[in-house]
Structure formats: structure tokens, C-alpha cells
Specification:
With 201 residues, this protein is of the alpha/beta class. The protein is 26% helix and 29% strand. The protein has 5 helices and 9 strands.
């Protein structure tokens, strides 16, 4: 692979700062973005479906919550504002993405509750009340399975994971694979070619 991709650890592409605007649950967001991160120019359609169709954490949720593959932070920022008492761990291999997520959390006054970190920086003992992800399908099936096998076991016993996957990129086969791994999986919603999966123990 040549050039940067959104799962490049340290993008060399010029940042070309920009802003992305979107609305979720009646709240407007304006977040900083930049080239070299996932869906840099807009809210990704899959992420939009996830945030519209999944059950956002209640205001009294204390977490901790996890955003796997945070990009510039749209899911993290929605979780942090929906659950103002929760700590949100925002994980991405991309350093620029983590920096943007931290900056966007600060814009929203949530800097003290958002931990934008590399995967290996999440303490092993942390268990998550909720895991959210628009997972990086394009890293390949084996790598995707490895990523999910790394993070889903970190769910608290009564925790829930929300995943969004495009049907044409294997949403239904991923559903079957998760069931084969012993997870309880419900197709919570379908919209615009995307599946929103609710995953529990």
C-alpha cells in the first residue's frame, strides 16, 4: 500500500485542517478534522447511521465507554455529551486522529473525561459499560476479527457493544461470525445499506 491510509500510525499527508458539521439527537456539532484520518471531510455515512439508530447512553451513564477507531472523534464527542458523567476512551492507531479527538473533546468541555490513546495505552483492567465502533473493515477480515477479539472481551458482564457495518462489506457475515464466537448479536437496525449490530455476552 502506498501513501497514507486512515490506519497509518503517523500520517505524512499535509493536515489541511477543516471542520465537519453534523447533528445527533437534536444537538449540533462542529468538529475539527484533517487529511490523513478516516472520513476527514464529512461524517461517515455508517457513523451517521450508528449514531442515529443505536441507543445512545443515558445521561446518568457513568461508563467507562469505549470508541474503537475514533477517527477525528464524532462518536467519542457524542458519547461524552450524551453521558456527561462517563469517561470515554477513544482508541485509534492514527496519531493525528487521536490529537483531533482530544482537541474536539476540549472544544466541548469534555477534555477531562476523554482519553484519546493508542490501543496499547488502555489499562488492561478497564472494563467497558459500552463499546462503540464503525470498525475499519478495509484492514481485511483477519485483522478485523483480531481487533474485535481484542476489544469485545473487555465488555463488562452486563455491557453492550454497538457496531455498524455496511451490508456490501460483509455486515451479515460479520454478524454470523460474532455468533460463532459466542456473542449474542441482534440486528438492531438497517438503514442506507448499513447494519447496526447490538452485541452482548
Amino acid at each position: 500500500m502506498t501513501g497514507d491510509h486512515y490506519f497509518t500510525a503517523e500520517p505524512t499527508t499535509a493536515a489541511q485542517p477543516r471542520e465537519v458539521e453534523f447533528s445527533v439527537a437534536g444537538r449540533d456539532y462542529t468538529l475539527a478534522s484533517a487529511a490523513g484520518v478516516f472520513s476527514a471531510a464529512r461524517l461517515d455515512p455508517g457513523t451517521a447511521v450508528l449514531l442515529r439508530k443505536a441507543e445512545l447512553p443515558a445521561a446518568d451513564t457513568t461508563g467507562p465507554l469505549l470508541d474503537v477507531g475514533c477517527g477525528f472523534g464524532p462518536i467519542t464527542c457524542v458519547l461524552a455529551t450524551s453521558a456527561p458523567s462517563a469517561t470515554v476512551w477513544a482508541v485509534d492507531v492514527n496519531e493525528r486522529a487521536r490529537d483531533l479527538t482530544a482537541a474536539n473533546a476540549a472544544r466541548l468541555g469534555a477534555a477531562d473525561r476523554v482519553r484519546a490513546v493508542a490501543p496499547d495505552e488502555v489499562p488492561a483492567e478497564v472494563r467497558f459499560a459500552q463499546i462503540w465502533s464503525n470498525p475499519p473493515i478495509r484492514i481485511g477480515k483477519d485483522e478485523l476479527h483480531e481487533l474485535l477479539l481484542r476489544w469485545l472481551p473487555r465488555l463488562a458482564p452486563d455491557g453492550v457493544a454497538w457496531l455498524v457495518v455496511a451490508k456490501h462489506l460483509g455486515g451479515d457475515s460479520l454478524h454470523r461470525w460474532l455468533v460463532e464466537q459466542g456473542w449474542q448479536v441482534e440486528r438492531h437496525a438497517s438503514q442506507k445499506g448499513y447494519r447496526v449490530l447490538r452485541v452482548t455476552r
